[in-house]
Design brief:
Elements lengths: L1 E5 L5 E5 L11 E9 L2 H8 L15 E8 L11 E4 L9 H4 L25 E4 L2 H4 E3 L6 H5 L4 H11 L8 E5 L3 H10 L6 E6 L2 H10 L3 E4 L5 H8 L5 E6 L4 H10 E9 L11 H4 L5 E3 L8 H9 L9 E6 L3 H9 L1 H4 L3 E5 L1
Parallel strand pairs: 8-9, 8-11, 9-10, 11-12, 12-13, 14-15
Antiparallel strand pairs: 1-2, 3-4, 3-6, 3-15, 4-5, 5-7
Length: 346
């Protein structure tokens, strides 16, 4: 089969590799019908995730058709169409029992495209299939469901729920890429009074308006901190969400929060970021971090199936599987191309 293989920082190749096989009783082999690229894949290619080694097939999001299952799999069968979640869950360890699947101790967590071969291929082996794939709801396009493999649960859980967004809150989202837009969309479910999107690219700020932002700030031309304080009578945001993964964005996000505010970091950071405790210790702030657990995926699937969330809005570009190199170019140059999520299909 063909797959997108990582060969060290800055190097990847669409090449021939062996097809995956059932290794454990709980495995499923899934034919990949639709797959996407994540910002985390770009962090890997920058060298920010050293656990990803030469020869690893990238990718952790897919919709596909079950080809084969191990003898212990009970919930899916060959021929079933499924969502492959970015998080794999053993289902029995302490953290899985607490719905913290991202911290799985039993061999799961974020492993696809990280510790084992991932989804940017014609076929993928998914361990713990009973707890790590979801049947597709009827009548929902595969590309819409694909957005629930990672970005929507990540924005919702690590941004909105960790940030404890409540009715009437002012929410500031730093970064209007796909994850920031997912946080904006998820925040809207809780009736905030105001959502402010902050980014350096006008194209992404325009997208933020379509996803529910009431106001936008281009931080290359405007002082985002002054703008948010002007909107809030000098206080700052009730909830500030970091969705970029660079030190400057984190430090701005902390500054944006009001005294007693909540700061939710979603971004994948590859370099140290300063937290000025000499300024912040007195402000009663709460800072959360997190890897998505995907415990919310069933809920989000119901919301998408019920037309309460327009997941397909994220998709801006389509490619065939063999066009992975070009798809990466378009996705990585989002400021010029306007790419939010690219979808590659058979």
């Amino acid at each position: 089969m063909r797959a997108l293989v990582y060969h060290g920082p800055g190097r990847k190749s669409w090449e021939d590799v062996p097809e995956p096989e059932i290794v454990a009783d709980g495995d499923a082999v899934v034919r990949v019908d639709a797959v996407t690229i994540c910002g985390t894949d770009l962090h890997i290619l920058k060298g920010d995730v050293p656990a990803v080694t030469d020869g690893r097939i990238l990718g952790h999001e897919a919709v596909g058709t079950v080809e084969a299952v191990g003898s212990g799999v009970r919930t899916v069968a060959p021929g079933d169409q499924v969502l492959v979640s970015c998080i794999t869950a053993c289902g029995t360890c302490r953290f899985c029992r607490e719905s913290r699947y991202g911290q799985c101790l039993g061999g799961g967590g974020w492993i696809l495209g990280h510790k084992i071969d991932g989804t940017q291929a014609e076929y993928v082996r998914v361990p713990f299939a009973d707890t790590s794939v979801h049947p597709l709801p009827s009548g929902v396009p595969a590309q819409d469901v694909l957005m629930l493999a990672d970005i929507l649960p990540t924005g919702y859980e690590v941004g909105v729920l960790n940030g404890a967004v409540r009715p009437g809150d002012v929410v500031a989202v730093v970064g209007a890429g796909p994850i920031g837009l997912a946080a904006i969309m998820g925040a809207r479910l809780f009736s905030p009074s105001h959502v402010v999107a902050i980014d350096l690219a006008d194209s992404r700020l325009e997208a933020a308006k379509q996803f529910g932002a009431d106001a936008t700030v281009n931080n290359s031309r405007q002082d985002a901190l002054a703008a948010v304080r002007d909107m809030t009578g000098g206080l700052g945001a009730d909830v500030a969400i970091e969705a970029v993964g660079v030190p400057e964005a984190f430090e701005l996000t902390v500054a944006l929060a009001r005294p007693g505010g909540r700061i939710a970091n979603i971004g994948v950071h590859g370099a140290p970021a300063a937290l000025h405790l000499e300024e912040q210790w007195i402000r009663d702030i709460t800072i959360t971090t997190g890897l998505v657990d995907t415990f919310s995926t069933p809920t989000l699937l119901r919301l998408v199936a019920g037309h309460q969330l327009d997941a397909g809005r994220f998709v801006t570009h389509h490619f065939a599987l063999e066009e992975f190199p070009r798809a990466y170019e378009v996705f990585a140059d989002a400021g010029r191309t306007g790419a939010l999520k690219v979808v590659l299909t058979r």
